[in-house]
Structure formats: structure tokens, C-alpha cells
Task: structure prediction
Amino acid sequence: PNPNRIEICITFPTEYVKTQLQLDEKANPPRYKGIVDCVKQTVDGHGVRGLYRGLSSLLYGSIPKAAVRFGMFEFLSNKMRDENGKLDSTRGLFCGLGAGMAEAVVVVCPMETVKVKFIHDQSSANPKYRGFFHGVREIIRTEGLRGTYQGLTATVLKQGSNQAIRFYVMTSLRNWYKGDDPNKVINPLVTGAFGAFAGAVSVFGNTPLDVIKTRMQGLEAHKYKSTLDCAVKIMKHEGPKAFYKGTVPRLGRVCMDVAIVFIIYEEVVKVLNKVWKTD
Result:
């Protein structure tokens, strides 16, 4: 099994809680008092399984997403390396930006829209999606294909900035660690630590975009005319703190996710370099 999928299965409840907290508008009183309350209400109402609502969407999307992200990053970075084959951090940032935007358009937008709608549906008065395929069929039946592609601008901005920040931090740390020796081997644990740090930086850097994306993909998305309109309304009605909803649960998951993904990526590249000399 793909290690990334195992990670998703372990950490998905944090993703669920993050999404619920981000969807929870400042209604009086708000549905959830915080992380613990959200977990408690979900388990009381739907059992532990309720915390895994929307999981299948991420599982189906995890492999294509990683393939598009790293494929695009390799493609771009091979064009941008200097004559010694080194990629500086600024170029790493642009390659990451391209990789994030590509994965957003091809995989992440529909995958996230379905995830958010499923999670939102579970907390609505009468949930209507029975399972993954039934839910997707319902979304397409009632809203057309556009219903699975909501919040595209916000998703492109979020994924683009996500990967730009992560690859920038990752490239900087890697270059710093290797110093003058481009062939210095990095221990997977060090790669993991660098990845977790890169993940944390991206969470603090772009959670506001994540909140906007979640709102644009929820069942109440029709309230917002555009990405900008959504940002303005959140600011006006809920204040600046609302842009950091779900930061804590997101932090845990993202750090683990990015660490694991970068370790796998580095190991795969090592193996491929042995099989095909890419120099």
C-alpha cells in the first residue's frame, strides 16, 4: 500500500475537524466550541466512522495528486538547474508554484470539492450522500460537472502557494545541509524533519486561503460571488481571526504528510537515479 494513503487514514480525522471548523460560520452560537467539541458531537451523532466522512475522495486522489505534483516539479526543475545541476531556492519556489498549480487544476480541485461537500453534508439537517459514488453522481446531477470544480481560483492559489513555500523551504534546507558537497547523502529522518518544518511554514503562510477554499466548496458556496467576495465577507462578518480557523488540526496533519511525502520522493529519486543515470 502507498505510505501516503496510510498517513491519510491515520490523520484524516484532523482533516475532518479542520474542515468542519472552517465551515462553521460565526452563527450565534457557533455549532462547535472547538476541536474537542467537534469530535464529540460527530462521534455522538455518527459514531467514530463520522470522523472519516470524505476520506475516500482523498484516497482516490492521493496517488494522481502526488504524481502530478512531483512529475511537474521534476520537469520544471530539470529545466531550471544551473550547470552543476544545482537548484537554488528561488527557482525551487517557482518550480513548486508550477507543481502546485498543476495539481490543483488536474486533481486537487475536484477531490477537495467532493471532500468538503461530503463533510458539510454530514452536518446538515438531512444528509443526502449515501457513499462516494452516489455523492459524486448527485453533485453532477444537480449542479453539473461544475459542481465538482468549485473554488478553483482559491484551490490554485492555495496549492500554488503551498508547494511554492514547501519546495522553497525544502530546497533551502537541502542546499544548506549539503553545503559544498552536492553528493552528500541526506538521512531520511533529516529529510522528514525538513519536510515537517516546510509543512508548518506553509500552514502559517496560507491557512487564510485554505479557509476561503473550504467555504467556496461547501454547500453554502452560492452565497459568495467570487473568491474575493468570500474573503471580504469573512473579514466583514467574522473578523480576521476567522481566517485561521482549523490551524491546529491542519498543522498536525500537514507536518506529517509533507514529511512522509518528501521522504518517499527522495527515496524514489535515489532508486531511479541508480536505475537510470539521470545526469
Remarks:
- The chain has a mean pLDDT of 92.
